[in-house]
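User: Hey, my collaborator sent me this sequence without any context and asked if I could get a structure. I don't really work with proteins. Can you help?
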Amino acid sequence: MEGKTVLNEDADIYRHPDEELTEKEKLKRMGWRGRWQYFKDYYMRYVLVAGLLVLCVVALAVFRPDPGTETVLYVGFINDSIHQEREEAVKEKLPEILSYDPEKESVLFDYTLFLTEDNDFLTKNTMTALTEQFYTGNMDLLVAEKDIFEAYEKQGAFLPLDEALSGEDYEELKGFLYDECSYSLKDSAVYHSFAGLDDPVIGICRKSKRMERSIAFIKYLLKG
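Assistant: No problem. I've predicted the 3D structure and written it out in structure-token form, which is a compact way to encode the shape of the chain:
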């Protein structure tokens, strides 16, 4: 006759030595410190990864950028200081002047370009950027002091204005010419309302892809 036992059938005494404990059984045997260490060793990495994924999703939802707009005119300014509030006031008028949709399109004023003897890093970056923009035709217009402009003009970076403009437009703006490739902005009220060079000139980049808007913007600067 079988004897009675006070042990449950699943007690450890009945378990084969090589049989592994279940996760639940392992945790039941541990104190709170052991359970915490077990959690850190086996599960913490997964919790951290899941947490990072959640944070990324939240960040994308909160800080999601607006859809990009297409650039309809790219104007580079070398060694210039731009007053941002006044720049915005000028840009508010441009959709009508240049005929574009401000919801989908925009004008880029690039005033991150600096050529100075005091900062080799900025100068090298600017020279690299200008070479790329001239070559690709991304930049339409360049505003700079006369000596800087002339240095790039000698390299063939700009279009002669009598080639770029119609005969009528060329004659209309003839009084503002600085040389064959540039107009003087010295007396431009529009330019001086938001930018800081004393006696700059402006020219059309040889590979500009937006000629009509380039000419319209020059007219706006010169004739207000």
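In plain terms: Strands lie at 70-78, 105-113, 141-145, 177-179, 182-184, 200-204. You can pass these tokens on to your collaborator as they are.
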